[in-house]
Amino acid sequence: MAHVTGEQLKRFSVRVFEKLGIPTKDAEITAEILVAADLRGIDSHGVARLPIYAKRLKLGLINKNPDIKVVRDRPGAAIVDGDNGLGQVVSYKAMSLCLEKAREHGIAAVGVRNSNHFGIGAYYAMMALKEDMIGLVATNASPLMAPFGGKVPLLGTNPLAIAIPAGTQYPVVLDMATSLVPRGKIEIAARKGEKIPLGWAIDKDGRPTQEPEEALKGTLLPMGGPKGYGLALVLDILCGVLSGAAFGGNVGSLFGDLDRPQNVGHFMLAIDVNSFRPLTEFKNTMDSLILSIKNSEPAEGVKELFLPGEIEYIKTKERAEKGFELNPVVAQNLLDLAREVGIAGSETTVETLFA
Amino acid sequence: MAHVTGEQLKRFSVRVFEKLGIPTKDAEITAEILVAADLRGIDSHGVARLPIYAKRLKLGLINKNPDIKVVRDRPGAAIVDGDNGLGQVVSYKAMSLCLEKAREHGIAAVGVRNSNHFGIGAYYAMMALKEDMIGLVATNASPLMAPFGGKVPLLGTNPLAIAIPAGTQYPVVLDMATSLVPRGKIEIAARKGEKIPLGWAIDKDGRPTQEPEEALKGTLLPMGGPKGYGLALVLDILCGVLSGAAFGGNVGSLFGDLDRPQNVGHFMLAIDVNSFRPLTEFKNTMDSLILSIKNSEPAEGVKELFLPGEIEYIKTKERAEKGFELNPVVAQNLLDLAREVGIAGSETTVETLFA
């Protein structure tokens, strides 16, 4: 087992990216965003993804030195062409531009094309918090869900992240995919030989299934049936169609499509709170809403109510203070990667890797 | 049975509102929006609501001559104070302002406070379509849903409507509440003595229930558990907290609270497509996305796939061409209302009411 700190993981990730030819500043941004996922407890989107990013970089499927450009520019609107750079580098720049524009006009949106997998949407949405703004960030993704009534996956799980500042309470940070569950949950059930609940997925003929193996050959179901389908579609339009990125069934898969760039599209929106309501009033009202929920009576069998993002804030605090155990498989994969790119010798072990 | 046309219903509704003291122009706006719901097949939100609006007007709970004001104004942002006017009148003005601002800056948002029940959100979102913009409109509502893990209703079903223009295809129009089902579905099950599926609602102790009577004493469940809860909360913040309207458990109920104004809050966003992507390109791409879904293979047992809003476009066309049958109970209620406000004599029947 490897006990690590966020700082160690960041340092390590920066070195890996540098070895892969990413400029230091971009390596730092990407490492910061990956490790933010680990700190939040979203391990699936953290450093566990380093190997696949490395693979795509080595295959030339991601541009190491992208010329990220604003290709359309209005007072409150812009399109950023990511030139196939790392999703994190492209998105960090795009959200920074969005915040700048929102400061001036009260609200702004930026569409992004020619990008890649960007990690957790919450990171970019949360960039708005420091500016006392509300951030909304969405991305499209490779097709895993059929439209409602269909069986052909034409939609990604297209996640949506929204961050809203509060006063003394934690900000509200919602970060959710539009499928009822992630595909990973079905993979876990398959490995354990367990059935899955109806409503998670359909088989390849579009029939409801409780067999994980059949579900994996079929497609995920959206949350709330036609509602989740509608949301996933709208987000695909905002991310893909409005920006000029890939959309529908055409977004490249991070893992699956090792012969072409992903051309992921993102949509970013920033709302300057003070342009709508005096900031202190807003923050006090947020606190009172949050506390009304925290103090409301839990349902039978429930100990405590949580606001969206609260658990991740608690986890981040805990992991930032004490560090955390890296999953042994992930740690081994990182060791293999480190050896491959030449930042670890054959004598290096998982235990000494991040020192 | 009363066979009616949209025009007849509009004329009738205008007369009722005028009799209740609403200025003609405002009466026409409100009638137009109510009847739009009927034409779309959303009968629950159409003229069936005339009696409750009339009741609130007569009780002085809605301001007949509101002084609707922009109380905060930035290039892409504004807050509109509805002065407790009819939700339709207030929202029509607010969305018009939002579209005007978006034309200039590429994107704009308007928050609304001191408003009332506004009918179907889709109407305002669709106002954006004529301007080749994307419209997003949300409202908060009186509490019917508990936060995830709770049992006290602190959130409305807070619906969200999004309208996106297309080329030769119907625009995409999503209009959905954040609860898995509307309360009305549970009331219907109760009347029929049928059980309801798990997942629709919890009883007053927060326990899952299949008994509609217990569910009606409890609260609705959000779609997708914590996801729908998060969405409902975020929409409440945008509609209520950002605008300075009521929020959380405090939004007045259209039917239940006959002793105070509702103070409903709305949030409206308009995105000028051409500020992001050349309009023709966007529309062509929309068509190709829509057709890829229409032409994709349906799941077993499904005949045809529909885009969000497509069924309502078809219904509107059909009802606008041929008229439609008004529900007999609704028709009788309207006759009673017409007699009450003095636009129908005692000899008037449901059959002759709308002539």
Q: What does this protein look like?
A:
Two copies of one chain form a homodimer. Chain A starts with a strand and ends in a 14-residue tail after the last helix. The mean pLDDT of chain A is 97. Chain A has helices at 6-19, 24-40, 50-58, 87-105, 121-127, 183-192, 212-217, 226-241, 273-276, 279-294, 310-322, 328-341; strands at 2-4, 69-74, 77-81, 107-115, 133-139, 160-164, 172-176, 201-202, 219-220, 264-272, 324-326. Chain A folds into three domains: 2-58 and 323-341, Orthogonal Bundle (Hypothetical Oxidoreductase Yiak, Chain: A, domain 1); 66-177 and 223-296 and 304-322, Malate/L-lactate/L-sulpholactate dehydrogenase, NADPH binding domain (Ribosomal Protein S8, Chain: A, domain 1); 180-221, Wheat Germ Agglutinin (Isolectin 2), domain 1 (2-Layer Sandwich). In chain A, a hairpin with a 7-residue loop joins strand 6 and strand 7 (172-176). Chain A is 41% helix and 16% strand. In chain A, helix 2 (24-40) crosses helix 4 (87-105) and helix 2 packs across helix 11 (310-322). In chain A, strands 2-3-4-10-5-6-7 form a seven-stranded mixed beta sheet, sandwiched between helices. Chain A has a two-stranded antiparallel sheet with strand order 1-11. A two-stranded antiparallel sheet of chain A has the order 8-9. The longest helix of chain A is centred in the first third of the chain and has 19 residues, at 87-105. With 355 residues, chain A is an alpha+beta fold. Chains A and B meet through strand 3, strand 4, strand 7, helix 8 and strand 10 of A and strand 4, strand 7, helix 8, strand 10 and helix 9 of B.
